[in-house]
Amino acid sequence: MRTTGVGPTLADVRLAADRITGLVDRTPVLALDSRVLVKAEHRQRGGSFKIRGAANAMLARYADEVVAGSSGNHGIAVAMLGAALGIRVTIVMAAGASDGKARTIRALGASVVQVTGGVVERDRRAADIAAATGAVFVPSSDDELVVAGAGTVGLEVLEQVPGVTTIFVPTGGGGLLAGVCLAASALSQRVRVVGVEPMSARRYAVSVAQGAPIELPPSMTIADGLRGQRPGAVPWPIIRHRVDDLIGVTDEAITHALGVLRRAGVSAEPSGAVALAGALRRGSAGRAVVIVSGGNGTAGSSTKKTEEPPAELLPASTGESACSSLRCLDGAEESRSRRIAADAIRGAAL
Where is this region: Disordered (predicted)? Predict the structure, then answer.
């Protein structure tokens, strides 16, 4: 966990949007039907939204070595950035994590350490390795810079879909949901933000009901990217204060939503189909956007993009770049690092 005690704000999300420009794609919004739209983060560099938070954290912090705990997609993002920036990377993965994603991480030059337990043990081991080696720990969600980077998904949705009434967000560690909650505060009119969790891993719903963070046993849901056990210290207060609803969906519902997406030409992974599973269960009055958070399957094919219907894009958000937390790159270093990483990641995505 990286926190100043204040927590990220909408301003931090806007700063993140500026910092990661050139490193991430502005993903399209695709029409699933006349009322449901898909924010296609499975077409993002690295195959998921995770590169947004990882890039924001790694550009803002000076490091020769980085350690992260990941179910796979965050690890792929950190490994891609590490290869581009010349940073040594170690990724710790929990029991049951995708072998294909682990292979992709290794192919990108990172080391992989696997633990026998769940997400809590994974993140504890990653933090211990970072402390022992002096590496910078980049959490997959429980970090102010990571949350702010993830929030840029929400900023893009609000710009691309004027009049959106509800955003359905897949929820694991909570970084994406917290970031979208922050982004939603940019509008004067209320946009409903709905978090969708696997039924066997409803750590946020249970914690909100109890009024305090609750740790759950490890889950083996097919949505392997959403097996978090306990709300993060950074996302928790944001989500508790701002989220409008939290929905649980079964593995059967996730499988059904995955089929709907794939028949429509959207190559999501199970975790990426969770938001649609929630939308199909709950429904929404008005215009709804579901975030397809990733498309890295068991083969770990993280850098290839599929052909899908085009979407009209609006100009990217901009903001004044600024550093925060730990030692930061100065403006010249940050710009140079961004250019180097963008060129390398663009090459890997071809």
Answer: 294-321
The catalytic residues are 50, 71
Model pLDDT for residues 177-236, shown as the tens digit of each residue: 999 999 999 887 889 999 999 999 999 999 999 999 999 999 999 999 899 899 999 999
215-234 burial: b if 16+ Cβ within 10 Å, else e: ebebbebbbbbbbbbbbbbb
| Mean model confidence pLDDT for the chain | 86
10-48+143-292 folds as Rossmann fold (3.40.50)
Decide: helix, strand or coil at residue 239: helix
Nearest to 129 by CA among 114, 117, 144: 114
Question: Can you give the pTM of this predicted structure?
Answer: 0.85
Q: Using the CB atoms, write b or e for 142-179: b if 16+ within 10 Å.
A: bbbbbbbbbbbbbbbbbbbbeebbbbbbbbbbbbbbbb
- Residue 24 in tokens: 């991430």
How many whole angstroms separate alpha carbon 340 and alpha carbon 308? 29
Task: Report pLDDT for 342.
Answer: 57
Q: Write out the residue limits of the CATH 3.40.50.1100 domain(s) in the chain.
A: 10-48+143-292, 52-140
Of the pLDDT bands very low, low, confident and very high (cuts 50, 70, 90), residue 319 is very low
Average pLDDT over residues 325-344: 45
What gap in Å lies between CA 262 and CA 212, rounded to an integer?
A: 38
Query: What CATH number was assigned to the domain covering residues 52-140?
Result: 3.40.50.1100
Report the pLDDT value the prediction gives residue 345, as an integer from 0 to 100: 59
What percent helix, strand, coil does the chain show, rounded to 5?
A: 45, 15, 40
| Residues whose CB is less than 8 angstroms from the CB of residue 211 and which lie 6 or more positions away in sequence, other chains included | none
Contact 160, 314 (CB under 8 A): yes
